[in-house]
């Protein structure tokens, strides 16, 4: 992916802290902005993994978990229609809608090498780690006759070491992202398999 530096370090208005949209509204935005079903599925998978992580690993209450879920669901919302301005357009839309700045910063930091925004809090770091890896796990599942059924971490790891498999997925980004969290690559892959396998 080409770089689209945002050249900003502050996102949203602190006065909007706690301002979220309900999940139905976010799905509606997604349906309007993202005609491509595969891309929508990617965002739903990232959202499911982010939400599960917030609840299971960060003891998030429902309001905090919704932030993680919204960031996951909307992080690529402008990619299909505005590939050259990804993710500036969705950020500006969420600012217009007075959404919580943490959600917007999380989206802005989902690819530090591309957008020039460093992940700061745990939610930022997790979207960076989950995003590419989620897509990779899905690619690894799709080539198996039984898909996610019986998909093991070791076979995902083997594919990661095969540069020609899903070659567009940056192994460097995955390693960089995982180096910023306290979870091993193996454990994160398992968590992703468990929480995105039933997302449709
Ligand atoms: Fe993504």
Q: Which SSEs are present, and which pair or pack?
A:
Layout: H1 23-33, H2 37-57, H3 62-74, H4 88-96, H5 101-108, H6 112-115, H7 122-142, H8 153-160, H9 171-179, H10 185-196
Q: Would you give an account of this structure?
A:
The chain is globular and about 45 Å long. It has helices at 23-33, 37-57, 62-74, 88-96, 101-108, 112-115, 122-142, 153-160, 171-179, 185-196. Helix 2 crosses helix 7 (122-142), helix 7 (122-142) packs antiparallel against helix 9 (171-179) and helix 8 (153-160) packs across helix 10 (185-196). The protein has ten helices and no strands. Helix content is 58%, strand content 0%. By secondary structure, it is mainly alpha-helical. The longest helix has 21 residues, at 37-57. Bound molecules: fe (ii) ion. Fe (ii) ion (FE2) binds next to helix 2. The site of fe (ii) ion has 5 residues, from helix 2.
Poorly predicted runs: none
* Total DSSP helices: 10
General form: globular
Average the pLDDT over all residues and give the rounded result.
96
Instruction: Give a short account of the largest sheet.
Output: none
Tell me the strand percentage band.
under 5%
Q: Which cofactor or ligand species appear?
A: fe (ii) ion
User: Whole-number radius of gyration?
Assistant: 16 Å
Which structural class matches the secondary elements?
mainly alpha
Number of strands: 0
State the distance separating the first and last CA atoms: 26 Å
Percentage of residues in helical conformation: 55-70%
H and E string:
HHHHHHHHHH
């Amino acid at each position: 992916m080409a770089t689209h530096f945002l050249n900003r370090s502050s996102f949203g208005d602190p006065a909007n802290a706690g301002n979220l949209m309900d999940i139905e509204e976010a799905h509606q935005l997604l349906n309007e902005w993202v005609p491509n079903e595969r891309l929508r599925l990617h965002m739903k998978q990232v959202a499911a993994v982010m939400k599960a992580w917030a609840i299971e690993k960060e003891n998030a209450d429902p309001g905090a978990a919704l932030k993680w879920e919204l960031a996951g669901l909307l992080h690529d919302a402008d990619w299909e229609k505005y590939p050259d301005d990804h993710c500036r357009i969705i950020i500006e839309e969420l600012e217009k809608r007075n959404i919580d700045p943490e959600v917007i910063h999380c989206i802005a930091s989902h690819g530090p090498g591309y957008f020039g925004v460093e992940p700061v809090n745990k939610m930022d770091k997790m979207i960076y780690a989950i995003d590419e890896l989620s897509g990779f796990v899905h690619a690894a599942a799709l080539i198996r006759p039984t898909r996610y059924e019986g998909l093991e971490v070791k076979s995902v790891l083997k594919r990661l070491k095969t540069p020609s498999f899903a070659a567009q997925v940056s192994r460097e980004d995955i390693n960089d992202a995982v180096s910023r969290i306290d979870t091993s690559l193996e454990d994160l892959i398992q968590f992703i398999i468990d929480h995105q396998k039933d997302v449709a």
